[in-house]
Design goal:
Elements (H helix, E strand, L loop, with lengths): L11 H41 L7 E6 L12 H6 L8 E6 L8 H12 L15 E7 L4 E6 L7 H16 L3 H15 L16 H50 L7 H26 L10 H31 L5 H8 L1 H21 L2 H30 L4 H28 L6 H14 L11 E4 L2 E4 L21 E3 L6 E3 L4 E5 L2 H12 L22 E6 L1
Helix pairs in contact: 1-6, 4-5, 6-8, 7-8, 8-9, 10-11, 10-12, 11-12, 12-14, 13-14
């Protein structure tokens, strides 16, 4: 079987499933996006219908002037003036003034007034306003206006606000009766007829319809992002796959020629075994994916499969370079110096993180012991960088073997982590806040629960003797969390302790994470604080389970 990407569409069942998912995404997004304009059109039509309905029902008016502020309007009492306003259905209109608002919550005050003096204003269950009831309330002293409605005559919150706004200019001028007349006229405009058709201004559809529009747009946008991501993954996977196929023989020859690699041979063997199995699996994946159609590329399942294939081929592409580098280094071939300068990359990065960590922690602690500790660690780090630089010369002169040079890097890596652990623990133990114990517990938990796959990445560059060097962490001989050809999900993370290797009692592989990972865990624990939340109620503390339609605002 050829391992070249095939033109076949993959297995029929898989292709149909991916196409079905793409169709579902496309249809669902379009349906959700259509809800808003359709509801907009429906509201417009209903507004036209309700606007044509007659408003010829005179309200039953009850005036409760507890604040003694209402005066006649053009020689008529407020009640008589309001009775001349036509509504679309029979209603009982209560006009109330009160300054008995002890909690400054007009909603609560009106409810308590009704419970004490007019139980007929409440529904039989007592948790709503009575059907057919409209209450217009004002508190002159507290400068608040409120509107309240029975369930069959209630209006939207936006229309309640408009009714209240209609009265505010007169209320601000002390024209209490005139303000109530304006509010009553606005209420007549918005209260629905007996069929439930709303009146007055055109209402926008409910807000949740707009959320459906947004949800539909997000689903569609996500589909096109998946398509873009899938096409990019496949494009990159093909590029890596072409290189892997071209270099396969070279990789096999390089691995066979590595020779004596000491304890590092175990890790290289593991990666070569993965390389061989990945070659077979990648060929199968190409056959399954084939050339996907437009609808198939909208599927998250295909995007995940393409991402897996890209990662697999990328890892193989890096692995064959690693085998070539290992053969060059352990045999001290012509390119061994370049391999060495890349091999020291992770250790140099960790040393730089150690220097940054001890500097920031010592400045925060500010004690003489912390300053002395910082100076000691910075001096040690400088010595290790000089030692790493000298190892290249020793290798060139034959004063040290390639295996021994890598073992020196292991020793420096372990020393770096011992210093880092001491710094972090000392800082957390010295925390003077009331959260110190909890913060240390957070740190300890992070050491127990972390997995290798949670690791931060090495940046791929470091400084030595003032010169910037670049390297690829995936291609180093010594294992790290980014090494090509390893299964991070199957590995255990070692924050501090033994370098990558197999634990004989558990048969698990352990490897160091970048020291920047431990710095991140430390910073998270060091700044940890407990969370808090709050709540409120529209009808105040005495409202109980009351949920009648109504609201109030200030003027």
């Amino acid at each position: 079987m050829s391992n070249t990407p095939q033109a076949s569409p993959g297995t029929p069942e898989r292709s149909q499933n991916l196409r079905r998912r793409g169709v579902i995404r496309l249809v669902l997004s379009l349906v959700l996006m259509a809800v808003w304009p359709l509801s907009f059109l429906t509201s417009f039509i209903q507004s036209g219908i309700s606007g044509a309905s007659k408003a010829d029902f005179a309200p039953e008016v009850v005036v409760e002037d507890q604040s003694s502020v209402f005066e006649d309007i053009n020689g008529q009492s407020l009640g008589t003036a309001v009775e001349s306003i036509g509504f679309r259905q029979p209603i009982k209109l209560v006009i109330l003034s009160t300054d008995n608002v002890p909690t400054a919550n007009l909603n609560e005050a009106v409810l308590n007034y009704a419970r004490s003096n007019h139980k007929e204003w409440l529904s039989a269950s007592g948790d709503k306003w009575a059907d057919g009831l409209v209450i217009l309330a004002v508190s002159p002293s507290y400068r608040k206006v409120g509107t309240y409605f029975g369930e069959n005559v209630k209006v939207s919150s936006s229309k309640q606000s408009k009714i209240q706004e209609a009265a505010k200019d007169d209320f601000r001028s002390g024209e209490w009766s005139q303000g109530m007349l304006q509010a009553a006229q606005a209420a007549a405009k918005y209260v629905p007829d007996s069929s439930g058709n709303g009146g007055g201004d055109f209402d926008l559809p409910p807000l949740y319809f707009f959320y459906l529009l947004i949800a539909g747009a997000v689903i569609l946008f996500r589909g096109f992002r998946l398509r873009f991501s899938t096409r990019r993954n496949l494009r990159e996977a093909r590029a890596h796959w072409d290189v892997v196929q071209a270099d396969r023989y070279r990789a096999e020859q390089a691995f066979a020629g590595i020779g004596d690699a000491g304890k590092y041979k175990t890790g290289l063997d593991m990666r070569y075994k993965r390389y061989q199995s990945d070659f077979v699996e990648a060929g199968k994946e190409w056959d399954e994916i084939g050339n996907p159609t437009f609808l198939q590329t909208l599927s998250a399942a295909l995007n995940n499969a393409s991402a897996d294939l890209r990662q697999r081929t990328e890892s193989m592409d890096a692995s064959d370079d690693t085998f070539a580098a290992a053969a060059e280094f352990f045999n001290l071939g012509a390119g061994w110096v370049d391999v060495w300068m890349k091999e020291i990359g992770p250790v140099m990065e960790d040393l730089e993180v150690l220097c940054e960590l001890v500097t920031s922690v010592s400045e925060e602690m500010g004690t003489p012991d912390a300053i002395r500790g910082r100076d000691e660690i910075l001096q040690w780090s400088s010595q290790q960088m000089a030692l790493i630089d000298s190892l290249k010369e020793q290798l060139a002169k034959g004063g040290i073997t390639p295996i021994a040079a890598l073992e020196k890097l292991d020793e420096i890596a372990e020393g770096t982590r011992r210093w880092a652990k001491g710094i972090i623990v000392a800082s957390l133990k010295a925390d003077p806040s009331s959260n110190s114990d909890k913060r240390y517990e957070q740190w300890e938990n992070s050491q127990k629960e972390r997995e290798a796959a949670d690791s931060a990445d090495y940046t791929g560059y470091y400084h030595l003797n003032g010169v910037l060097h670049n390297y690829d962490p995936a291609k180093t001989i010594r294992l790290n969390s980014q090494s090509a050809g390893i299964d991070l999900a199957a590995l255990k993370a070692a924050a501090f302790g033994t370098y990558a290797g197999r634990n004989s009692s558990t048969d698990n592989w352990y490897l160091f994470q970048p020291l920047s990972t431990d710095r991140t865990y430390y910073q998270s624990a060091h700044t940890w604080t407990p969370s808090s939340d709050s709540s409120s109620s529209d009808y105040g503390s005495s409202g109980g389970g009351f949920s009648g339609s109504g609201s109030s605002s200030s003027f």
